[in-house]
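Entry:
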Amino acid sequence: MTIRAVTVALLLMFVPGLAWATPTIGASAPDFTLVDSNGTEQSLSDYLGQRVVLEWTNHGCPYVGKHYGTGNMQSLQREATEAGVVWLSIISSAPGRQGYVSGEEANNLTATRGAYPTAVLFDPDGHVGHAYDARTTPGMYVIDEAGILRYMGAIDDQPTARRSSVEGANNYVRQALADLDAGHEVQIAETQQYGCSIKYR
């Protein structure tokens, strides 16, 4: 067995989530259980029957700052949650690395920024991030009521940290949700993520 094969085998054995391999549009989204900012365990499977948006985030990332600093992310969260969508913000930053926060700090960020997630979840070991092949913040995923992954990629088509780029951008998440509302296939189902690299362990 080659060194690479041994390495992969060990990862699959000891790192839960990597066994799922790369997530696939049209297939079941990898299930997970994480602790939220209030200390409560939440599983993706708890939300079967509801549409779900996953948002990988890091408050120290300037690309994330673009969307929160302009209110763009908050307005999208509010639109979605008021329409019955479950919005889960996930922090995969490892302890001691940029973006890692306590539950209290996460709740304070939610309040001071006027954010509207259903919950903020912690993934300090990076298991869920790796299961979704999440690479940057922000990184976005849309899952339908049957638990099928319908969109993954960037939030929009403006891969820059300039706040002025929000105006006039094509928001892929909003478009994906609108396509699902209309009973259509998501027209743009996968895009290249952009932003800051996730600060995995």
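The domain at 20-197 is CATH 3.40.30.10 (Glutaredoxin).
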